[in-house]
What we know:
This is Cation diffusion facilitator family transporter. It comes from Antarcticirhabdus aurantiaca. By secondary structure, the protein is mainly alpha-helical. The protein has helices at about 1-20, 25-50, 65-95, 100-130, 130-160, 165-195, 200-215, 245-265; strands spanning about 220-230, 230-240, 265-275.
Amino acid sequence: MATxxxxxxxxxxxxxxxYVTGSVALFSDALESIVNVVAGLIALWAVxxxxxxxxxxxxxxxxxxxxxxxVVEGVLIVLAALLILREAWEAYLVPRTLEAPALGxxxxxxxxxxxxxxxxxxxxxxxxxxxxxxxxxxxxxxxDVVTSVGVLAGLLVATATGWTIxxxxxxxxxxxxxxxxxxxxxxxxxxGLMDQAMDPAxxxxxxxxxxxxxxxxxxxxxxKTRLAGRAMFIEFHMVVPGAMTVxxxxxxxxxxxxxxxxxxxxxxxxxxxxxxxxxxxxGVPVL
Length: 287
């Protein structure tokens, strides 16, 4: 809810900057903030759904709902960019004289500072909580900050030189920048929907934990990982001596699961125990 409140506040400030100047570049900045408001509402819904407990219809939980939020946000970014490009083209054909540019720049600067602080917070929280929705929202707002800085710089030059062409030119650059950001948001979310594996550093940590905690087993192979929003799933085959009892093998499994769950939040571990005849001499070495 805080994200939506901040987005509405920033939208109001940016629209005020556009209102006092008539700048198409500031209009493009305000239009992107409308996307932030809508995206914030969608992210709020997605995060709420993602925390619903697993049920009979969704036994693996609802964490992937956050990816849908990020995909929708990416689509909204693209639509906003197309609208901005249209406005920039019209302003290029019919140049506009800026009114009270200094006041508009000052007002927009306040909104940019607020956005920068909030984007930094969202990105950090998204990483801590492994939340695609929060991270995507933070990256989008940070892209908004970058474009706002570019807009302000362009307007300062336009005001100093009288080159009105810089106004639509900066609006076009805003559109191209948020198109780039929209592409990254969508592709990252689609990777999650396609059951992307954990990143190499995290998977390396998983291998180290398994290797250190699998004492008594012969080997571990066929390790697979996947992400579903903030949730993580780890599965592998563990080979044990043929004479080992089920109870003894279960003790090893519990030891590995406890260590992985202590290292990673929201992780589900599935271990398939096999007799030594199934050994492949590959995979994770047991220390």
